[in-house]
Amino acid sequence: MNDIAKSFVSEGRLISEDSLKERLIRLVTSWEAILALLFIIEFVFFSFNAPYFLDSFNLLNASFSYTEKSILALSMVFVIICGDIDISVASIIALSSLAIGWLASIGVESIGVLILAGIVVGALAGALNGLLITMIGIPAIAITLGTQSLFRGICNIVLQNKAYTEFPDDFAYLGQGYLLNTDIPFELVFYLILAVIIGFVLHYTGFGRKLYAIGNCTSTAIFSGIKVQRIRFYNFMLNGVFSGIVAVFLTSRIGSARPNMALNYEMESITLVVLGGVSILGGRGNIIGVLIASFLIGYLRYGMGIMRIPGKYMIITTGFLLIGAVLLPGILDKIKESRKLRRQQKEIDAERSGN
Amino acid sequence: MNGLKALHKNREAMLLLLIIVSILAISIKLPRFLHVENFSNILSDSSILVMVALGQFLVILTGGIDLSVGSIIAFCGMLGALINMNFPELSPIWCVLAGAGAGAGLGLFNGILVAYGKIPAIIVTLGTMGIYRGFTFVISKGQWVTAHEMTKGFMSIPKVSIFGIPSIIIYALVVCLLIFYFIRYTRTGRELYAIGGNKAAAVLVGIKEDRLQVLIFTICGLISGLAGVLWAARYSAAVNEMATGFELMTVAACVLGGVSISGGSGLVGGVILGALFMGLLNNSLTMFKGMAFYQMFMQGLVVIVAMVFNELMARSSNKVVLNRRIK
């Protein structure tokens, strides 16, 4: 084989199959691996330094504090991968919870009806977001900023300074119950199932691929025949549905519907998504990262709580983690780039010396 | 329809008209609303929003957003109040300077991360929103600074009357004039529009985008810091949770004032009127019995209606331009 053909083959290999070492390096320097490593370090640190941390009952029970925000983050992944953002989710939760509380207060006993009401109200609110964003064509951040006040405003008007606190007895199971005879919270299981479904849709279906296409270049996606506006609409509606689901869990867990519930959940779930390696500009990220990020933040909070570190340090840490999470991949990319350049340089040098 | 279009072209006139109509409508129901004292009250209440909305406006103009202004207000307000509490003999001027200086520092940190870390502004400020709020809790040790721990001099910072006008309004006026001059008559100010309009083109023309980003985030932080001290002094209390959610109010004031959220367009006058309208809305609703609970809903409604109206009008005027070209 002559030299030119050889170089073509090696170039082809560069794209299709790298050497084992290269693949290993890429795996180790991937964002998910770094997150997983951070999580392991955190876990080991707390196990040695915090009494009662390493206890299966405690660990499982701590999940109540983060599953709701994590469920919210799952559908937010779709929105953010398309390059949009939704800051109205916390208000949608309050609105759905209002609907559940109102139905319960007028004597609806059926759990199914309550759940359905929460989800339908969430879906409608999400659909309103989606309609305004896709039909009128206003940036998502501006519209959801408005609907954030609008939805929570409705709760303020209806409830004023009161709260709904009467719920059917069985309703508490959803947010407080455990899987039959075990210590595993029902919420946690539900979250993991949802994560698998969302992950499957995102990574193994045409719909998921379209999301990435939209996020990477919207106009290319439009010219490729992807119904961009329709998909964005679905995303916002899905976000509404998930907010409704979270509202069901949250209302069931705290046993009341108040206008100021779930404050700041939108910021916390966006933080999880970005920390999980999803690019805020869209088109990049995966579900594994978000999953690990939710455990990382959830157990950081739990561990710090056990060590009696005040909550203020928690929000500072989360803030730095978020910024670090975006700074680090950029730096890593640069290192990878320079490695690649150096390798290419080496190959060229080798060829020249061979000649 | 033509009248509507003319109004859309002159957004400031529209907002002004809206403000006058609402004032008239309210005063028919509540005659005491028309008192000079009440207006001075409304203006004082809206002054902080006007100032910070202008800082936010600079950031939005370049296509960014600053979600940390609420936390900067809290931190600097707390810092000013703490200095006053621990060193009561110090002139309150130092509290104002310390607050503004700290605000500028926090803004600078945002700016450096955005400009040189190449992180989208929304992410940086989402992060620093938590960080600065956490710092507030750290310096205050979780405690409040209440009215009887502050000196009279500190609490009178926003209330001293200059030519019969409370000084907080003067502060806001000075900020308005400075920003107006900066945006309209300086080269740097015009360059902000260029960056927001088309970043790549602006960089190719030779505009130093990085430095400008740092500059505007610092200005935004400075204004927020100043506003923080005024906030603590005006309400005679420095609370750790103060100004929570205020960042979104400033963004809403900008949007209402016709600033494009994707950057590149907007006027100082629009932002000021937008902020004043929000202030008027809040103030007047609390004057009616039971209407205080409508505040949030009305804010959201106004912002959404303003944006939808804006977009539809822009669309129809685009159509007119297109038709003219075809002919």
Walk me through the structure.
Chain A has 355 residues and is mainly alpha-helical. Chain A contains 16 helices and no strands. In chain A, helix 5 (67-81) runs antiparallel to helix 15 (287-306) and helix 14 packs parallel to helix 16 (311-354). Chain B has 327 residues and is mostly helical. Chain B has a two-stranded antiparallel sheet with strand order 1-2. In chain B, strand 1 and strand 2 (165-166) form a beta hairpin. The longest helix of chain B has 32 residues, at 295-326. The two termini of chain B are 22 Å apart.
Can I get a quick summary?
Chain A has 355 residues and is mostly helical.
How many strand units of chain A?
0
Judged by helices, strands and strand pairing, the structural class of chain A is mainly alpha
Largest sheet of chain A: none
Looking at how many chains there are and whether they match, the oligomeric state comes to heterodimer
Span between N and C termini of chain B? 22 Å
- Strand fraction of chain B equals under 5%
* H/E element sequence of chain A: HHHHHHHHHHHHHHHH
Low-pLDDT parts of chain A are 7-16
Write down the Rg of chain A. Answer: 24 Å
Q: In what range is the share of β-strand residues of chain A? A: under 5%
- Contiguous runs where pLDDT drops below 50 for at least 5 residues of chain B: none
| Distance, first to last CA of chain A | 16 Å
Please tag this protein with its features:
heterodimer, A: 355 residues, mainly alpha, 76% helix, 0% strand, B: 327 residues, two-stranded antiparallel sheet, 14 helices, 2 strands, 75% helix
